[in-house]
Amino acid sequence: MTNQLQKRLKMLNNEHSSLLTQPRVDGMKENLCFISSEYDTDLMRLKRNLEYYNEINKKIRIPVIDNENKNHLSPEELERQKQALIENGRRLSEMIREKRQQNTNNNNDNRNEGNENIERKLKESDFKIYTQR
């Protein structure tokens, strides 16, 4: 249920999708949601009674920070997240380095190819000059 809520919130609030983490969405679900025991009756009541709708309808601002559970992650989880960030940074740096190397190699190949074309054209023009005399 939390995963489905998280997906829907991310679709509705795409600009805040990175802030809608599993623990935050779980906290929203626990604090703001309820399951109706009489769904059809409550649905009809919502449609007919604006006061009831306003009573149960909650507007929230993303991100919701639960002050009570601000440090809800264990030290192990925090260390795991830190290591994941470090690893992602290392992988990103490696990808950038490889891309730069690839671009450098492509530029060198293009230069060599261009130089070969110039040399070939010069030789062809020399040949034309000699044959026309």
Q: What report would you give on this structure?
A:
The N and C termini lie far apart (88 Å). The chain has a domain at 2-72. The longest helix has 58 residues, at 75-132. The chain contains five helices and no strands. The radius of gyration is 32 Å and the shape is elongated. 73% of the residues lie in helices and 0% in strands. It is mainly α.
Largest sheet: none
- SSE order, as H and E? HHHHH
| Overall average pLDDT | 78
Helix content: over 70%
- The amount of beta strand, in percent, is under 5%
Distance between the termini: 88 Å
Q: How many DSSP helices?
A: 5
Principal-axis shape = elongated
- Number of DSSP strands? 0
Estimated radius of gyration: 32 Å
- Structural class determined from secondary elements: mainly alpha
What are the low-pLDDT stretches, counting only 5+ consecutive residues below 50? none
Question: Features of this protein?
Answer:
133 residues, mainly alpha, 5 helices
Task: Write a compact overview of the structure shown.
This protein is mainly alpha-helical.
Q: SSE layout and pairings?
A:
Blueprint: H1 2-12, H2 22-32, H3 39-48, H4 50-56, H5 75-132
